[in-house]
Amino acid sequence: MLANKTIVLGITGSIAAYKAADLASKLTQAGAKVEIIMTESATEFITPLTLRSLTGQPVVTKMFELTSEFSIEHIALAEAADVVAIAPATANTIAKLAQGIADDMLTCTVLATKAPIIVAPAMNVNMLENPITQENLAKLKARGFVIIEPAWGRLASGKMGRGRLADVDEIIGTIQQVLGKSGDLAGRRIVVTAGGTQEPIDPVRYIGNHSSGKMGYAMAKAARDRGAMVTLITAPTSLPEPTGIEVTPVRTTIQMKEAVAKAVAKADVLIMAAAVADYQPKTSAKEKIKKESPSLTLELIRTPDILTEVKGDFIRVGFAAESEDLIENARQKLQKKQLNLIVANDITATDSGFGVDTNKVTLIDRDGKVESLPLLTKREVADKILDRVVEFLR
Fold first, then answer.
1. Cβ partners under 8 Å of residue 369, min gap 6
2. For labelling, which of 55, 261, 282, 317 has a CA lying 20 to 30 Å from the CA of 292?
3. What are 28-53's pLDDT values in tens digits?
4. Which of 209, 329, 345, 359 is catalytic?
């Protein structure tokens, strides 16, 4: 998603400037060309050499810098940008941007660019809550700037409050979302399910499975980054909530079915990446079952089949996690559930399936086309699936 994109990263004079090094490094590792502009105050907190070492690009600190390829025409950097992200952004820089002041390279670049602009404030809580700062942020929002709300926590002053720079992964997620707004899924609504549902035996025990949710979360992020409006319906996982995605937490299969039925009312696509429990206890104890007997007998009943029971006019993509007869079992599920596409993966492989970051799958569509993919990251698999979804939508 970020490969071959030019990201202008503005760094201003906040104590959070040191976090920009991690941001610049991760953006560069993702394949982006990161051009950094530092205000004079920012250089008091972190050196240009550090950032140049991480990005491999010259760092601009002055309006006319003879060592910079952008020294002759300062608007050249503005024109090169696919997106401008200012992180951290101080109250001072936000105020200048709100008033259209262009007295340094960063503010000049913002004023000259036609690229989308993302601002991630970081400052003392009192400065953030000052009506002037809030008015300035409101002005920027009204002009189309994307504001990443600062986080709550311990500040440099030692006080607790809102004003910390947003998490680096949230900033990157926002950049990806902004860059993908004109993608091939722009304007489409996609519902994705993820994780393994949990069917309670009593208040502390449940029937579950080994799903980590990684494939579903990768699907949701990939759809977001291609311009889709995404609803992620997720069973419990240890994964952080993705940026720019409507997240609906559920626990049981019945809860997931209800959430899916509601979400698909306006959806173009449903991607059922969740590992839904096939059975649930007929009754769930209201109190913890005591370990008084050497054995425990549970009567299980079938859970709802979400893909079969939820009706509507939308593209349906299912997953088949199999341990034997992969293709045949997947074909049967494709036909039974009347899917457009099914993604079959062999859960016996150690480098594919539950809990790992890679997957080796076979795609089978309703016309009988079979495509076996090599071992890929789950994000790469997600994009391959979405390539097929785009074809269906056309």
1. 363
2. 282
3. 999 999 999 999 999 999 999 999 99
4. 209
Beta strand 189-194 with 269-272: parallel, antiparallel or unpaired? Answer: parallel
Classified as helix, coil or strand, 101 is coil
Token reading at 202: 């009593």
**Which run of H or of E encompasses 269?**
strand 269-272
Can 209 be counted among the known catalytic residues? yes
Closest CA to 120 of 164, 88, 74: 88
Query: What tens digit of pLDDT does each residue of 220-244 get?
Result: 999 999 999 999 999 999 999 999 9
Residues 6+ apart with CB under 8 A from 110: 10, 78, 84, 86, 97, 102, 117
Domains of the chain in start order, with CATH, are 6-179 (3.40.50.1950), 189-393 (3.40.50.10300)
The runs of H, that is alpha helices, within the chain are 19-29, 48-55, 76-80, 91-99, 105-112, 125-129, 131-142, 168-179, 214-225, 253-263, 306-309, 326-336, 378-393
pTM, 2 dp = 0.89
Task: Tell me how far apart the alpha carbons of residues 339 and 388 are, in angstroms, rounded to a whole number.
Answer: 13
